[in-house]
Design a protein that fits this description.
The protein has 473 residues and is an alpha+beta fold. The protein has a single domain, classed as Cytochrome P450 (Cytochrome p450), CATH 1.10.630.10. Helices cover 48% and strands 9% of the residues.
């Protein structure tokens, strides 16, 4: 038996690092197709296996999860976010999760439905005003702005005050810095100095915004008793009775502010884009919404009457998962696909690749929401159902409600169709997405158009849509 599985040949010393920096999804996709279930990678000083067999993925993430920690690449995120739910491990992670989880229970999410629906209607009204002037709407930019609004209102029960107009640009700079440094060797993370100073300034803005939210709540402690921020501030350790330190509170607020905003906004942007390319799917979605809502704003209980809407969202997230790649580091030797994975090596799990393997998905590159229908889901092999498309149940409930209430035309007037503005072609850049992500870059979009990858902040340039009638949406 070979010591390591076959894999792509790289350069001496650097291995596949240059190729990964240029086009990680292309490299991982090519390796999966060429080498099968397990492929060996050397990426600079790091070594590991790309795994694409659902049994191996489940082994790493579930059955033998205690043997794996988040990879060293998460250290890059800790520089900006700190050691919170997203980046922490073991008992500390479990403690923080137990504190936060009740905020995402079904009953709590149902109570937030009005906030989501009101925000969606406000956005639709603004877009109608813009459309009346014959101007395009940058959907991705709008999704980033409005998902932030909902996260701040629903989870933090506050506003960003003087930081409202600067937080998005600050996050773009932070995201870009993290993305560019993710696969670097660390020698040039602070160069050029002018760019690093912009990163430091953006980090200061983020810290100021979070401190503003926390201080605002402390001045008005009784105004919001049930949101996530209140729970974090009042939570006590079951054993010691201690509350969170100011730094711990700041880290968790930062995590939810950014993680909750970025991934959802990217998912919704891809929904808009895919619907603009598939008129039949858009028509079916609009008809379902019209029938279920009959012109009124959506409510939480309407979700059960929007099955096709959920299928569209699921299919968009299959093709373009916002958190599209991550890795885990082995704490002790393990075996994956019949090969020994030495202690300290990485297991690469790339949902973007897993969701496009023809062995598990029929016509995997096609946008086909019906593949998530009850009938086709029932026929789906058990291995395919284990693919990491979905998240934890409570967070999934929040995200599905959020996505459904933000779905195109929900609670607004019917459209005449969506068409990307040909004058605003996307320009991809490497960036990071907060979530289970370690890899960043771009990949080819539909119809051969170079579109931003699921991890690209420049997804925002996908979002200029115009209707055939001339009314832009």
């Amino acid at each position: 038996m070979k010591a390591v599985p076959p894999g792509p040949r790289g350069l001496p010393i650097l291995g596949m690092l240059p190729a990964i920096r240029r086009d990680p999804t292309g490299v991982f996709m090519s390796a999966a197709r060429r080498f099968g279930d397990v492929a060996y990678f050397k990426i600079g000083p790091r070594r590991g296996y790309l795994i694409t067999n659902p049994a191996d993925v489940r082994h790493v993430l579930q059955d033998n999860a205690r043997n794996y920690h988040k990879s060293p690449l998460y250290n890059k995120l800790r520089l900006s976010l700190g050691n919170g739910l997203l980046t922490s491990e073991d008992e500390f992670w479990l403690r923080q999760r137990r504190i936060a989880q009740p905020a995402f229970h079904r009953q709590r999410v149902a109570a937030l439905a009005g906030v989501m629906a009101d925000s969606a209607q406000d956005a639709a009204n603004q877009w109608q005003t813009i459309a009346s002037r014959g101007q395009p709407v940058d959907i991705a930019e709008e999704m980033m702005r409005l998902t932030r609004t909902v996260v701040v209102r629903a989870l933090l029960g506050a506003d960003l005050g003087p930081f409202t107009d600067t937080i998005d640009e600050a996050w773009t700079i932070l995201n870009q810095h993290i993305g560019e440094s993710f696969w670097s060797l660390g020698f040039f993370d602070r160069f050029p100095p002018s760019k690093y100073r912009r990163f430091q300034a953006a980090r200061a803005i983020l810290r100021g915004a979070v401190d503003h939210v926390i201080n605002q709540r402390r001045r008005n402690p009784s105004d919001h008793a049930t949101d996530l921020l209140s729970m974090l501030m009042s939570a006590r350790d079951e054993e010691t009775g201690e509350t969170m330190t100011d730094e711990q509170l700041r880290v968790e607020v930062t995590t939810f502010l950014l993680a909750g905003q970025e991934t959802t906004s990217l998912a919704l942007t891809w929904v808009w884009y895919l619907l603009s390319q598939h008129a039949d799917a858009q028509r079916r979605l609009e008809e379902e919404i019209d029938t279920a809502l009959n012109g009124r704003p959506p409510e939480f209980n309407d979700l059960v009457n929007l099955p096709y809407t959920r299928m569209v969202i699921d299919e968009a997230m299959r093709l373009y998962p916002p958190a599209w790649g991550f890795s885990r580091q082995a704490l002790a030797d393990d075996r994956l696909g019949g090969f020994r994975l030495p202690r300290g090596w990485l297991a690469f799990v790339i949902p973007f690749v897993l969701h496009r393997l023809p062995g598990y998905w029929k016509d995997p590159d096609a946008f086909n929401p019906d593949r998530f229908s009850p009938e086709q889901s029932a026929d789906r092999p058990e291995q395919r159902r284990q693919m990491p498309v979905h998240r934890h149940d409570d967070l999934d409930t929040f995200d599905r409600a959020f996505d459904a209430f933000w779905s195109p035309t929900a609670g607004s007037e019917p459209s005449d169709g969506l068409t990307p503005d040909p004058e605003r072609a996307p320009r991809p850049e490497r960036a990071a997405v907060v979530g289970h992500v370690d890899v960043v870059s771009r990949h080819p979009g539909p119809a051969g158009v170079v579109a931003p990858g699921p991890g690209d902040r420049e997804t925002r340039r996908l979002g200029n849509f115009t209707a055939p009638s001339g009314r832009r949406l």
